[in-house]
Amino acid sequence: MTKYTFKKRAAITMDSAGFHFYCDTFKTLVSETSGRLADRNDVQGMCPSCGERYSGRKMLLDGQFFVSLLVQLTSLLAEEEVATGLTQRHRQFGDRHSSGAEELSDITDGQRLYGKMWRKKI
């Protein structure tokens, strides 16, 4: 599924998303707001750990935020086609993992690779 198809099928808009801003030093939550551009830019917050003050615009520019899409993802995951695709992908991952295949095809393979490296103390 492409990014475009995902956004279209999940009916995702930035206005319906939630934005969560955090302190870059302590990784603590500073503020939360809706996805509306004006709200994101206008939000202000202070880190409860270090007391540093932050503005939404600066945190957006610095990448000190994450986006939540809970309602949209819940409805998307409830679709049979999506659930079937994820189930098949999970099975493929399990089959590759149990067969000891060495090729890496996506981010889910990273756990296996990291485990091997850690055991070898690389």
Short description:
The protein has 122 residues and is α+β, with helices and mostly antiparallel strands.
Descriptive overview:
There is one protein chain. By secondary structure, the protein is of the alpha+beta class. The chain folds into two domains: 3-72, no CATH class; 81-120, no CATH class. 49% of the residues lie in helices and 17% in strands. The protein is built from six helices and five strands; from the N terminus they run H-E-E-H-E-E-H-E-H-H-H. It has helices at 3-10, 37-42, 56-62, 70-77, 80-99, 110-120; strands at 18-22, 29-34, 44-46, 53-55, 65-68. It has a three-stranded antiparallel β-sheet. Strands 3-4 form a two-stranded antiparallel ribbon. A hairpin with a 6-residue loop joins strand 1 (18-22) and strand 2 (29-34). The longest helix has 20 residues, at 80-99. The model has no long low-confidence stretch (mean pLDDT 80).
Number of strands: 5
Output the number of helix runs: 6
The quaternary organization reads as: single chain
User: Structural class, judged by helices and strands?
Assistant: alpha+beta
Structural key phrases:
6 helices, flat, two-stranded antiparallel sheet, 5 strands, alpha+beta, 122 residues
